[in-house]
């Protein structure tokens, strides 16, 4: 009989515990219970208060107050405070939670429980704001310094994610602008790695390379190297190099500095421009091969090499990525392409049939169509076009997918016939750098470049070769 009683008790106790827990979590009793436990714990231990004022002793903004505000309002416990303010963010569907005046929230770090008070005091129309950190004295020596460093790190990440990206363009040295050598506009390029059509494995390799770079500060310092990485994007015009740069900037949340070498006076001027760039940025020089081969810049080869990996480069800020674009890397000095100056080479070719299918899916919503076999046959015959040219035809005829495909077929056949009539059997990609193609000049190339992407548009990129990744 006693065995039955023991078994009954063993069954009854877990059931009662489950029932109590269920009732607590289904009601507000669990919050009341936690509050009582914390109240008792607070009365047992001695606490110390640390004040972070909005203004410093000189009446200037306290930058650490801003960091604490970002950190505190990012804590999940903000939702549990008695009063929380809701505001709309920059995007229409964003909601931002901000702690109300004189509210208290909890945080935990390294096993220690701390609390923050959003203190607001008003005296005769003057409002004094501060954050009060309450921490147990027994935990202070062990956790305070790491906790403050943790606040710095988290607030930096939040600020980086929230800030508005900018595209910087250099002024000429003779313009002598009041606000320095760079002027900026909001960077609104729509391209992302999700909207760019490329091989999934190659896309993941590029993203992984960028992510590893961002996390490698200590590694670069240990190796005694500047925390930077250089990319070369090469291929004919219209193959998506500028859109790829936009995707990199949006992925990393980096500002973009678009260097116009034609407005740089000399090698020293180029160094000064580099020194005025900020950390966490992309520094871009487009059409570098054309500028060098046609002597369209006063910068010497030595000046360019020092810009890419010289001493000034290592002293101009950390966490920078340089991106250079070329139509072809065959005509440039090999010294510009050696490892250390260029870390990653990415080739952007003209369209093949697989790229065409990605374009048809993105622009027209077509995964299959009865005209696809005909398009594939034309591609196999040697005809090709740039992704930008095919994309424009699809946009112009997007109301009728069949008409759009027929227009692409007609254009491909025309290009193929032109190549055959030349008597050389040459593909369009072979003549990408010929005078006939390049006759658009600087004006047209600038319209195709990174600046135009900030106003909209979309290009499809297919990377067929990633070297040294």
Automatic annotation (TrEMBL):
Q: Does the keyword Magnesium apply?
A: yes
Q: Which residues form the signal peptide?
A: none
Query: Which Pfam families does UniProt cross-reference here?
Result: AAA, AAA_assoc, AAA_lid_At3g28540
Region Disordered, annotated ranges = 416-435
Family classification: Belongs to the AAA ATPase family. BCS1 subfamily.
> PANTHER family from the entry?
BCS1 AAA-TYPE ATPASE
Q: What is this protein called?
A: AAA+ ATPase domain-containing protein
């Amino acid at each position: 009989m006693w065995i039955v009683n023991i078994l009954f008790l063993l069954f009854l106790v877990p059931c009662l515990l489950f029932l109590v827990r269920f009732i607590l979590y289904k009601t507000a009793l669990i919050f009341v219970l936690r509050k009582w436990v914390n109240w008792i714990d607070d009365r047992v231990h001695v606490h110390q208060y640390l004040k972070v004022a909005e203004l410093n002793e000189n009446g200037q903004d306290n930058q650490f107050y801003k960091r604490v505000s970002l950190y505190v309002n990012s804590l999940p416990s903000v939702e549990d405070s008695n009063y929380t303010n809701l505001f709309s963010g920059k995007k229409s569907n964003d909601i931002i939670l901000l702690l109300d005046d004189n509210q208290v929230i909890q945080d935990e770090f390294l096993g220690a429980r701390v609390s923050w008070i959003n203190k607001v005091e008003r005296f005769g129309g003057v409002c004094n704001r501060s954050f009060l950190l309450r921490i147990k004295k027994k935990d202070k020596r062990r956790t305070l310094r790491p906790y403050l460093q943790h606040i710095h790190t988290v607030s930096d990440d939040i600020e980086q994610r929230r800030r508005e990206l900018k595209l910087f363009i250099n002024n000429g040295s003779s313009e002598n602008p009041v606000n320095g050598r760079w002027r900026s506009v909001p960077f609104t390029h729509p391209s992302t790695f999700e909207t760019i059509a490329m091989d999934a494995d190659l896309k993941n390799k590029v993203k992984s390379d960028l992510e590893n770079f961002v996390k490698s500060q200590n590694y670069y310092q240990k190796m005694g190297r500047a925390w930077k990485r250089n990319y070369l994007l090469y291929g004919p015009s219209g193959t998506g190099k500028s859109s790829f740069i936009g995707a990199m900037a949006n992925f990393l949340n980096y500002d973009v500095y678009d260097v116009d070498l034609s407005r740089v006076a000399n090698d020293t001027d180029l160094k000064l421009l580099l020194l005025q760039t900020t950390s966490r940025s992309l520094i871009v020089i487009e059409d570098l091969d054309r500028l060098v081969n046609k002597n369209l810049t006063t910068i010497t080869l030595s000046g360019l090499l020092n810009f890419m990996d010289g001493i000034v480069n290592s002293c101009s800020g950390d966490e920078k990525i340089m991106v250079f674009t070329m139509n072809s890397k065959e005509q440039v000095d090999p010294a510009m392409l050696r490892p250390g100056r260029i870390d990653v080479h990415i080739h952007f070719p003209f369209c093949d049939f697989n790229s065409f299918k990605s374009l048809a899916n993105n622009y027209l919503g077509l995964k299959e169509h009865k005209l696809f076999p005909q398009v594939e046959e034309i591609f196999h015959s040697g005809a090709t076009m740039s992704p930008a040219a095919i994309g424009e035809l699809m946009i112009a005829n997007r109301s009728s997918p069949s008409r759009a495909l027929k227009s692409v077929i007609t254009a491909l056949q025309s290009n193929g016939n032109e190549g055959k009539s030349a008597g050389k059997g040459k593909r369009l990609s072979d003549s990408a750098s010929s005078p006939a193609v390049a006759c658009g000049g600087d004006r047209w190339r600038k319209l195709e470049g990174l600046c135009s992407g900030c106003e909209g548009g979309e290009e499809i990129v297919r990377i067929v070769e990633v070297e040294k990744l």
